[in-house]
Amino acid sequence: MDHQSISDKTDTNPNPRPSSLRTNSTKRPMFGCKGKSLSFEDKICTVIPNDSVFLQTESDHEDEDRMCFSSFDSRWWEPDGDRNWVQYCMNTSIHGLKYLAESKRHICERLFWVLAFGISCLTASHLINSVWLKYSQSPVVITFQPFETFVEQVPFPAVTICNMNKVLKSKADEYMRAAMGPENDPQTVEAWKNVYYLDHVCSTSNKPFSATFNYTSTQGTVDPTILQLASNKITTGDKDVEDVAEFLQKASQPCSDMMKLCLWQGNVYDCSELFRPIETNFGKCCTFNMVPQTLLHRYMDDARDAPQDISDWNEWTSMSELISKGDLSSRKKFPRVQNRAGKVSGLAFLVDPDLEEYFCTASDSTGFRLATHLSTDVPHVTDFGLAIRPNYEHFVSVRPEITLADDVIEGISIEKRNCYMDGEFRLNYYNYYTSSNCMDECIANLTYEACNCVRYYMPRDHNRAICGPAKYQCAEDVKQKSFNLGVKNICQNCLPTCTEIKYFADATSTPFRRRVDLWADEYNKSTSWAKSNISIIHVYFGQDSSYARVRSQLYGFSDLVANFGGIMGLMCGFSGLSFIELIYFFSLRVWFRQRRKRHLRQKQELREAAERDRETALAYLGVGLSSSRRASIESARSNANNSISFKPISLVANSANEKDVDSLSSGYVSNSPTNLADNNGDDVVAVSKF
């Protein structure tokens, strides 16, 4: 081919595609993210609008990928397959999402699955919210233990019995006679105080039903003349006339006279060893298996408490020790425990009401009131006592209701579990916390705030005065107001203990045999109280065992996770790995994709720079220039005094193949001479950058 032909061809196409950049004309199918087939001849990547998709191809010189763009027509709802969320939807294990990202899906199909997935998520959210509210608002549930709790593990209840009669008739007559003595006689002054107390106890405190309607007004009353004399001689504010408890101790029936015979666990005991006196809201009473008053109250030292009993009871200091565990032989002496259920192993005692000594009563009947309660509770005989009828044998079957606390609920707030663990709440006047003791202390505080004193049976310290007869009405008004408003509403801090025992008693009775002297001894002599209206009382556990209730956690953490996972799996097919997928696709995968794009972009930029350098080298050799331009360049080179000899550019252009041009371009970029050989290998041209 001559030089002119080359020039003409070059003039026809002033910017021909360099031969080094041409490829074969075979169209190669390329696939974009949307799965559509494309074809192209050129391998040069061009920048296209944002609605294009990425393509990948291979270089003829290197075995690696590069990113290319190509655009094609698509509908607006077709998702871009290269986007991260589309790939997530196509690969996730969550149900229904792949139908949103699949190509060639009609918009109605996509809307259907959007609606279905949204409804499933809303339903799952509603169910999870219900479970969460149940967990957060009521986290404690009470269930039954799967195994039995036997009676030998449960403390026997405290038994408190009170005579209906408050004051012995002989004592009342003695005080009224002594009040008529000489004014300067100390015994007379003491008698005035006793008469003052006598009227207070009999006429105002705990009236019987008939007296409330002003019937039986003369029964158990003090002679008005003697009462007026006593009232004029004493001062109502005198500390000596405020301690009603002291009066009851000496004016009421002693426990030694009330309790005649006693049995415990089938063994005979002196009743004074089992029963101790106590003052309650009903009056003076006798109690069995109860914590000594010295230990129960913080600021009380009761001289009637035996030192040995205080020492034995002091070993039991925790409410959590109510239920015996492990070896029963190592259990403490107190509180007492019944070894087996039944009447024979329980408590039995004979009581004498001494009806001849009745002066004023808290009831219109005769006999006794009996209450069973926890050993650390103050007895409320007036409200919950059982009636004990004279001349009858009574059988009181006790059923314990045990509530235990699981250790896991200790981590739940008090407001949510609604009970106190051992030692969580401390009372000011009691050493042992129970809900009943807390309410008694609460009412005592209200009484002191309103009346500046407390009732004789209420808890107190040495700085609080006892309400005498003059303050009786004030104290009674406070009690009535608290009952009307509700004690639990006023004393809201008095929650139950998480571990507690309640005793429920069922009583039956039968009359004594008649025409038979039951109390004649071996010499056919009857005891002094044999002709009295006595009663026999049996108190015992009526069943061998019971199933304790347990306060436990409704949902633990594992239960909560299992519930949430079950709901999500049911409604959406969500699992733990689905959560890992979500994190992976929108964190690690995004980062790696961006890193790969940057790497491919850098490679593309290097290739584009190489292409530009190649084109520059070809232009330098004159390929693609006009004939006049090539002639001027050759003339300038021939006139230059250069030691390097050049072949005509046309010959170089015609004889150099693509490989030589690539070598030329590479030598140009590196700014170093490069040897080009023509096809015949006869001449070599040295090209250098100007």
What's the name of the CATH homologous superfamily of one domain?
Acid-sensing ion channels like domains
Instruction: Give the distance, in angstroms, between the N- and C-terminal Cα atoms.
Output: 29 Å
Oligomer: single chain
CATH T-level topology of one domain: Acid-sensing ion channels like fold
- What share of residues is helical? 25-40%
Largest sheet: 8 strands, mixed
Structural class: alpha+beta
Report the sheet-strand fraction. Answer: 15-25%
Overall shape: elongated
Helical stretch tally: 23
Rg over alpha carbons: 53 Å
Structure description:
With 690 residues, the chain is α+β, with helices and mostly antiparallel strands. The chain has 23 helices and 23 strands. A hairpin with a 2-residue loop joins strand 11 and strand 12. Helix 16 (435-451) packs across helix 17 (472-485) and helix 20 packs across helix 23 (658-669). The longest helix has 46 residues, at 576-621. It is elongated.
